[in-house]
Amino acid sequence: MSRPVALITGPTSGLGAGFARRYAIDGYDLVLVARDVARLERLAAELHDEAGAGVEVLPADLADLALLQKQLDVNVTAVMQLTHAAMPPMRAAAAGTVINVASVAGLLPGRGSTYSASKAWVIAFSEGLANGLGGTGVGVHALCPGFVHTEFHERAGIEMSGTPSFLWLEVEDVVRETMADVAKGKVVIVPGLQYKVLTAGGRVVPRNLVRTVTKVVGRGRGRT
Prior knowledge:
This protein is an alpha/beta fold and about 220 residues long. It has 2 domains: about 1-60, NAD(P)-binding Rossmann-like Domain (Rossmann fold, 3-Layer(aba) Sandwich); about 75-215, NAD(P)-binding Rossmann-like Domain (Rossmann fold), CATH 3.40.50. It has helices at about 15-25, 35-50, 65-95, 115-130, 150-155, 170-185, 195-200, 205-215, and strands at about 5-10, 30-35, 55-60, 95-100, 140-145, 145-150, 170, 190. A 3-stranded parallel beta sheet has the order 1-2-3, covered by helices on one side. Mean pLDDT is about 85; it is low at about 220-224.
């Protein structure tokens, strides 16, 4: 691959697919990692035809354990291992960007204790690395989206019908705002004005009030 390369996990739908298309359009070759081989190969063909991207497909399941342990394996262990694996060549080249997908749930106490805690870890991990890599040419960012119209909730079996419509974001908007904030050097990225207001408010109001509000707003999530 002679062009810059982006490695994207979970690119077969949702935000992963959105970032894959954006990086292909921006002139990157891609390495795509997910479980569904057929969808990976279909996406690879689409990106090659639409954007001329060179695409390498790596079928892999980043977790194979009990449900909550699997969640931690994907949200914590895989993020840590993949980020550290990417660091040496990036530092050697004095260039590179890591975008770790966290969640607004990592900034606010949600109904999903394990999920929220794992995403809070991603934010802290990314911020720590960003501080340590200052001046190296390598950037690490934590993306903290709220509810996004993807397959995520349906595949997780989470009932979302009670979620207010103003809280939903679109993949294209999240990707666009994220890339703009990466260019500005922002480390913790919160797409959407509504979520910027919620997270800013969460830092100044009492925590018990924040828990009450998020319990109401996130009532359809049903996580443990």
